[in-house]
Amino acid sequence: MGGTVLVTGAAKGIGGAIARVFAENGYSVAINYFKSEADAKNLVEYITKNGGVCSAFYADITKIDDVNFMVEGVKKNFGFVDVLINNAAVAQQKLFLDTSLEDWQHVFDANVFGMFNVCKKILPDMIKHKNGKIINISSIWGEVGACCESVYSASKAAVIGFSKALAKEVSLSGINVNCIAPGVIKTDMLNNLNEAELEVLKDKIPLNRFGRAEDVAKAALFLASNCACYITGEVLNVGGGFYL
Q1: What strands, in cross-sheet order, belong to the sheet with 3-7?
Q2: Residue 159 is assigned to a structural domain of this protein
Q3: Rounded distance, CA 155 to CA 146, Å?
Q4: pLDDT (tens digit, 0 to 9) for every residue of the chain, 244 residues total?
Q5: Is residue 101 part of a domain?
Q6: Which residues are catalytic?
Q7: 139 close to 241: Cβ distance less than 8 angstroms
Q8: Is residue 243, in this structure, part of any structural domain at all?
Q9: Could you give the number of structural domains in the chain?
Q10: Rounded CA gap, 178 and 154, in Å?
Q11: Which candidate, 232, 94, 102, places its Cα nearest to that of 153?
Q12: What CATH number corresponds to the domain at position 211?
């Protein structure tokens, strides 16, 4: 393995695990962060101390000028981006009738239009090189929907639809586009649940444990590898068998 991977929203959580796993497998890692500068710097320090190649790049991916500046910085430091992983996202829990147009705009800006901005900037080079892997992090809720998460579920469903369509469009350019749909992963997104609620949720998972961020990272590593060169337009569920 090897090459350069750009991971959005990579300062911590699933994105941070992806950065670590790819660095451990010989990739030069470009970490995108927005609000978590300290976490991003700590991750860069950890990876470099352990023999990896890594740099952090600020960008609010909802702003195209930020994205353009970030990608140019990544290319200047590392050259061609072999793998793009669109991981940055926000979540929201509300009854649908309590959501506003502003709520929907905020979530879709981050989860859908941010992904659009980064793909728009990265794809021309991939098409020119006739090579590249794009991995978009969706969610199990984008497949089956989640109660009180209508806007989040809708945004993650949009990620899946976009990925399937783009996979068909760029396949003849040698580019693979796939999705990962994590199930219940032990990250900060579960912090709003109490212990009793977490236990009820865990009991619904056939493997009887919450997923780890590293579980998603290893799935991403597989989709980025030559082992997955004949896989495109697919949704890989990483959820321990959990479906509602």
Answers
A1: 53-58, 27-33, 3-7, 83-86, 132-137, 175-182, 235-238
A2: yes
A3: 12
A4: 679 999 999 999 999 999 999 999 999 999 999 999 999 999 999 999 999 999 999 999 999 999 999 999 999 999 999 999 999 999 999 999 999 999 999 999 999 999 999 999 999 999 999 999 999 999 999 999 988 899 999 999 999 999 999 999 999 999 999 999 999 888 876 777 778 878 888 888 889 888 899 999 999 999 999 999 999 999 999 999 887 6
A5: yes
A6: 152
A7: no
A8: no
A9: 1
A10: 18
A11: 94
A12: 3.40.50.720
- Answer yes or no: are the C-beta atoms of 159 and 110 closer than 8 Å: no
In angstroms, the Cα distances linking 23 to 41, 134, 190 are: 15, 17, 26
244: in domain:
no
pTM, to two decimals: 0.95
Task: Provide the residue range defining the domain that includes 88.
Answer: 3-237
Q: For residue 18, what are its two tokens?
A: 């992806």
The residue behind tokens 């991003």 is: 40
CB 181 within 8 A of CB 223: no
CA distance 18 to 41: 15
